[in-house]
Amino acid sequence: MTRLTTLSTYLDQQCRRADVAEAIRRLASACADISALVRLGMLDEHRGLAGGVNVQDEAQQKLDVISDELIAKALDDCDAVSGYASEEREHSHTTGRTGGVLVLFDPLDGSSNIDVNVSVGTIFSIMAAPASGPPATEDFLQPGRSQLAAGYAIYGPQTELVLTVSAKVVAFTLDADGLWRLTQDDISVPRETKEFAINMSNQRHWTQATQAYIAACLLGEEGPRGKNFNMRWVASMVADVHRILMRGGVFLYPWDARDPTRPGKLRLLYEGAPMALLIERAGGASTDGQRSLLDVEPTQLHQRVPVVLGSAAEVEHWASHTAA
């Protein structure tokens, strides 16, 4: 495999299912279109709030809506896709076809950062559709280990597509001609790290276990961890996870007491499960505090979960605090 291998060639050679490959091609094309819109920055008229809220009760950016529509159109036109679900939509959608695959996606993760020119992205997950009949909502409620593929596009200084269709995690970069070219052939997350990503403004709401874990990290070489940690927090999951895939680290969005009835902030099917598949196939680990995120059994389309993922030793260390 050379650095000039295109996404289409890679999928022909590495993807076991033609329907998965075709769905990824359509998603990648939509992501290239979204990249072009994001790149225009303040020159583009599609800036600011759309004036509504999504099913997550979050204010929608105009680009949230446009990105959602671009991906939906790409999947509606794809013969391999019989249904899809979006973080921006309350209900799943059927295309009128049967068999093939189902796609779940977060069209523009971190969109609140658009106006300050911080990296944002698109996350997607691909699962098998029922062999006959139109897919129902329950057909999307598959555990993360059932994913046939997962990935994300990150719109930053470069636009990259990070993907897993096999045991490996690979990355493609969008070139000036609009082609996705393979630039990393086997991404590996270091087992050890000295870097964590967490929203410190929520500290007063954390459990005692999470507070103890972060406190130990902040004590540095003089503390029980015996090493100095750096903290990073972009407030764009794609950007934070991308950094961890490239150089290691741990991302934490654990349960907190701001809304005790809500099990977590992030969505299992659109964020937690696809990112966990990428991280674990790259040699890292993930947990909701009790099990790998890939083993969580979904019960709702927009189910929320605590998310901790990244370098395996650090995920294990955090989990040891919660078990104590």
Distance between the termini: 46 Å
What would you give as the CATH superfamily of the largest domain?
Fructose-1,6-Bisphosphatase, subunit A, domain 1
CATH fold-level name of the largest domain: Fructose-1,6-Bisphosphatase, Chain A, domain 1
Written as H for each helix and E for each strand, in order along the chain, the element string is HHEEHEEEEEEEEEHEHEEHEEEH
CATH architecture of the largest domain: 2-Layer Sandwich
Overall pLDDT metric:
93
Number of strands: 17
Number of helices: 7
Specify the overall morphology. globular
Per DSSP, what share of the residues sits in E-state strands of 2 or more residues? Answer: 15-25%
CATH class of the largest domain: Alpha Beta
Biggest sheet architecture: 8 strands, mixed
Radius of gyration based on Cα positions: 19 Å
How are the strands of the largest sheet arranged? 4-3-5-6-7-8-9-10
- Number of structurally distinct domains: 2
At a glance:
The protein is an alpha+beta fold and 324 residues long.
Task: Reconstruct the topology from this structure.
Blueprint: H1 7-14, H2 18-39, E1 49-53, E2 59-61, H3 62-76, E3 81-86, E4 93-94, E5 101-109, E6 120-128, E7 149-155, E8 159-164, E9 170-174, E10 180-184, E11 195-197, H4 208-218, E12 230-231, H5 237-247, E13 250-253, E14 266-267, H6 268-281, E15 285-287, E16 304-305, E17 307-310, H7 312-323
Parallel strand pairs: 3-5, 11-12, 11-13
Antiparallel strand pairs: 1-2, 3-4, 5-6, 6-7, 7-8, 8-9, 9-10, 13-17, 14-16, 15-17
Helix pairs in contact: 2-3, 4-7
